[in-house]
């Protein structure tokens, strides 16, 4: 297990949001994020993660409309496990019971596993302050 | 425990039968009509509710005796709760003609991230900080009420 930085270089902007609880005729709203690349930090086996991400050609939502096209993946040695930063604060929502960092961090009801928009996947979590 | 289980356990079970998935029961509680104390039926279309573990308080008087009823305004009730914060998960809800969406239900567990669930969306703010012009409506309203309350105490 090693700390890794996984980078997707994007050919098109990616889109988030739009999730809804039912399939009724509703107006969905999306956020368009224009970025050249997106990097996530993780801890795991490099070759297995490579096998996992290489077949992913699109990320985000509205993929069938051409958004979030990935042109290449790059996996490098990272410095973070993607959970807590050097100040022991959370880098992403982590459920209370699983959090081992600074317990004075901000606590909120937040989605911590996909589908993040679905309220059933929410729990009381330690969250980064930027998230709210 | 997620928001829906919390809602159902401390509030929703007094309003609707707990069938299906927790979020379906929550949606039923928010959308269907309930027997009022007056004998008529109505959806939750006005007032407010504060749900804490084993204690639900609301303004609209329903027929069920398992809920506490309180005639204070939304800002007075929310302000009291935040001023007497006891670090316990709390659900602050505002009702209006448009039903509250299940996707806009969020628990408040930290005064630095208070979440007021309204039919127009959830309002999130840091109660320990003063509001700015760009702060959500309820942050400004609660701050104003707090100042009024503080000046009232000083006059006494």
Helix content of chain A: under 10%
- Which structural class matches the secondary elements of chain B? alpha/beta
Terminal Cα separation of chain A, in Å?
31 Å
User: What's the gyration radius of chain A in Å?
Assistant: 16 Å
Give the CA-CA distance, first to last residue of chain B. 44 Å
Q: How many helical elements of chain B? A: 4
Judged by helices, strands and strand pairing, the structural class of chain A is: mainly beta
Q: What is the tally of helical segments of chain A?
A: 1
Order of helices and strands of chain B: HHEEEEEHEEEH
Overall average residue pLDDT of chain B: 92
The main sheet of chain A comes to: 3 strands, antiparallel
Strand order of the largest sheet of chain B: 5-4-3-6-7-8
Q: What is the 3D shape of chain A? A: globular
Protein described:
- The complex is a heterodimer of chains A (132) and B (156).
- With 132 residues, chain A is mainly β.
- Chain A folds into two domains: 76 residues, no CATH class; 38 residues, no CATH class.
- Helices cover 6% and strands 34% of the residues of chain A.
- Chain A contains one helix and eight strands; from the N terminus they run ββββαββββ.
- Chain A has a three-stranded antiparallel β-sheet with strand order 4-1-5, with helices on one face. Chain A has a three-stranded antiparallel β-sheet with strand order 6-8-7, with no helix packed on it.
- Chain A is globular.
- Chain A starts with a strand and ends in a 6-residue tail after the last strand.
- Chain B has 156 residues and is of the alpha/beta class.
- Chain B has one domain.
- Helices cover 30% and strands 19% of the residues of chain B.
- Chain B has four helices and eight strands.
- In chain B, the strands form two sheets. In chain B, strands 5-4-3-6-7-8 form a six-stranded mixed β-sheet, sandwiched between helices. A two-stranded antiparallel sheet of chain B has the order 1-2.
- The longest helix of chain B has 19 residues.
- Chain B starts with a helix and ends with a helix.
- The mean pLDDT of chain B is 92.
